[in-house]
Amino acid sequence: MPRTKIEAILFDLGETLLNFGRIESTAKLFKDAGRRSYTYLKKLNQPVGPFRGYFWRNMLGLRLRYCISQVIGRDFDSLALLEKYGRRRGFQLNRRQWQELNWLWYEPLRQRSSTEPGLTRTLTKLTQAGLKLGIVSNTFVNAGALDRHLTEEGLIDFFNTRVYSCDFGFRKPDKRIFLEAARQIGTQPENIIYVGDRINKDVKGALRAGMQAVLKNAYTNAGKKPPTGVETIESIFQLPDLVDKLNEKR
Q: Domain segments of the chain: what residues?
């Protein structure tokens, strides 16, 4: 039976490629986002009303939709939600303006994010070795905002395959989202490494899909033990050597 080689690497987004860290006050972050989006709508002469009402309607609406998504196991799309609420209030925006509004709600989170030193050099090394790279992320943030964030970080061109759960009826650890990414990237699951920071969603989901799971150590998995045989890394920088190691075993 011929040996299979690693041909592609799929990554989680938060705390894997992009580091956000612990968020101590989501309310403060949300209020910042609300103020930015409110100012933008006021400049466009939209009927937003007083800020207090605007803020609470959006915060409670988002929390309710998030709770529903946790129950039904399916993520929503933040842009679609904004449009739904906005049109009820009489907002009249074109496509670019809706997307900018969605970005302003995400921007405070983007501004607290960071990437590890030398990330682009490592990704370049992986692609030069012939590996295809992609992203599989659980998220309700619309793809436009996430792609803009990746673009600003200089990362977008590494990832032609980007699978966001808000675009599908399933999310990690459902193996279907991993298999969809494998289909898009054009590689069999057994030839793919999946790198993520959450054992229940990333590691176990990738294993169910027949992929080689790699756990990136982060605060999200502190003190937790990964399943037997799962490799762990502290940094994306370690991946080129890990790929060589895994290929030697195959």
A: 8-21+114-249, 26-111
Given a cut of 90, whether residue 27 has pLDDT beyond it is no
One-letter amino acid of 58: N
Dump the DSSP string for the chain. -PPP---EEEE-SBTTTBB----S-HHHHHHHHHHHHHHHHHHTT-----HHHHHHHHHHHHHHHHHHHHHHT----HHHHHHHHHHHTT----HHHHHHHHHHHHHHHHHT-B--TTHHHHHHHHHHTT-EEEEEE---S-HHHHHHHHHHTT-GGG-SEEEEGGGSS--TTSHHHHHHHHHHHT--GGGEEEEES-IIIIIHHHHHTT-EEEEEP-GGGTTPPPPTT-EEES-GGGHHHHHHHHHHH-
As its CATH architecture, domain 8-21+114-249 has 3-Layer(aba) Sandwich (3.40)
pTM: 0.95
Sequence-ordered list of residues with C-beta below 8 angstroms from that of 59, at least 6 positions apart, any chain:
27, 30, 34
pLDDT-based confidence at residue 2 (cuts at 50, 70, 90): very low
Mean pLDDT of 72-86: 95
